[in-house]
Amino acid sequence: AASAVPGYSPGFKKPPAMLRLKRKRLRRSEPAAAPPPCGEAPPEGEGPRRQPSPLAGRGSPGPGARSPSRSRPPAWPCSSFLLESVCEDKPARRAELSERTDILALTDDLHLPVAVPEVPSSPRHEFPADWSIKTRLLFMSSQPFTWAEHLKAQEEAQGFAQHCRATETNLPQSIQEPKLSTELRCAFQQSLVYWLHPSLPWLQLFPRIGADRKIVGKASPWSQDEALQQVLMSDWSVSFTSLYNLLKAKLCPYFYVCTYQFTVLFRAAGLAGSDVITAVISPTTRGLREAMRNEGIEFSLPLVEESRTRKQKNSEVNLETEVANSLDVGEEPAPSDDDDESFSWLEEMGVQDKVKKPDAISIKLRKEKHEVQMDHKPESLALVKGTNTFTLLNFLINCKSLVAVAGPQAGLPPTLLSPVAFRGGTMQTLKARSINAKARVHLAYEDIFSLEIVGPIMPHSLHALTTLLEAAQRGAFSAVLYTHEPTAVFNADLGTASPALNKETVHKDLTACGLHPKTLDQLSQCPTLGKSSIRFLEMKDYAYTWKS
């Protein structure tokens, strides 16, 4: 049995790649020189030993075959970086692997980065707002995270109460004894709270896109029961409407609607630089966009329009060349992707009668092809503003394609995620655990303290946690952020910035939205990350640098 082998460690994992050393075979014409052994020189008078034939061992050993009792590792050419891996005795190697088993397994579990990615050279006292949903955070620091372990019942209850009452917690810049700070521990519990609907404890309801393999095989009594599906959707509609009413009243800053095909982010007026309510949908399909148009919902595709404007500017330089080539060859010019069918530029050049214009059917087919090509991509993001968000609310409630009709998610309503309480919502907490590991630095092992947060981590939670760590870890920590990729495009600048919006107006209007004033300051800024999100965050001397 494997467990009986001395030094065997079941937790040790085979490395992904192995270093292989090839030995150059000696030609017959060349003299056989004895390779230098790794450990000590061979005895005097002993020449180079011939390698046994590959066929030796199939039958009886030949006269030149080596006895099993005298078998020794081959004497390969040595180098400084191979001494430890090639020339090490097996018992000593097994002992070392056994001692390092826990470290390697833990490091693999933490997914610690091998190399720190490049970060901006200019540190700032605040990092930009990240509207993507994170699935996992891994904070690392030279200071322990013992203050985040084993919260007392009173501290946990106080944290829940502070969340429900939207209590502002202002910590000092540095806490000398974090483990003894009740205020810090209560604020940590407060930062882990979020609200969810529906609540089915045996199912993981986020993420929903690509979650079929995690849900398959789980009990879903509603999948074949239409009456139960109607009850679930009716309850979901009440919760969805409640969230929108809170958003409109500026009592909820934002919330997410996560379906099995797309995600919708509703933001209150004053956030992301907009002075009206906005809803961002990604990814979309041609069918969804057509259904929204049929319902009278006015929306825009800002990323498509931005790309189109960029192409138009680039094409103006080569416009005359293209027209000249089409006149010489007599070919029909390619139709434009623009919405209008105007060819006024031909009239301006005086060649409108010499160039054949594409017919309306060709233009329509080209547009449809272009729309289908961007389906399910970040560029298909749709933006809905103002009163059209209420029309979108009714559309989503009555949309039959909002819920899967087959598969593991059949009949399951979309997931609602919110930073504040709403009707039908269930209080949930992110999972947190602190882990201590050792990493080899140069010739010694150093302690690495880490704090792992798992769950649907929304923007306000990320900012609240980093604010706590700033005080508890004395302004020095790093973090690896794992993003739910379909939501990374929510960081794009959609051109909704209002010049009349200022900091005082935002704080006055959203003072009761449940966010800390510093978090509100961050989320009210215009997005600057583009279609990406923050992957690595580091604080040194109370200043942030990041990598997206």
From TrEMBL:
This is DONS protein. It comes from Phaetusa simplex (large-billed tern). The gene is Donson. It is found in: Nucleus. PANTHER family: DOWNSTREAM NEIGHBOR OF SON, PROTEIN DOWNSTREAM NEIGHBOR OF SON. The keyword Nucleus applies. Keywords: Developmental protein, Nucleus. GO terms for biological process: nuclear DNA replication. Belongs to the DONSON family. The keyword rRNA-binding does not apply. Residues 52-74 have a biased composition (Low complexity). InterPro entries: Donson (IPR024861).
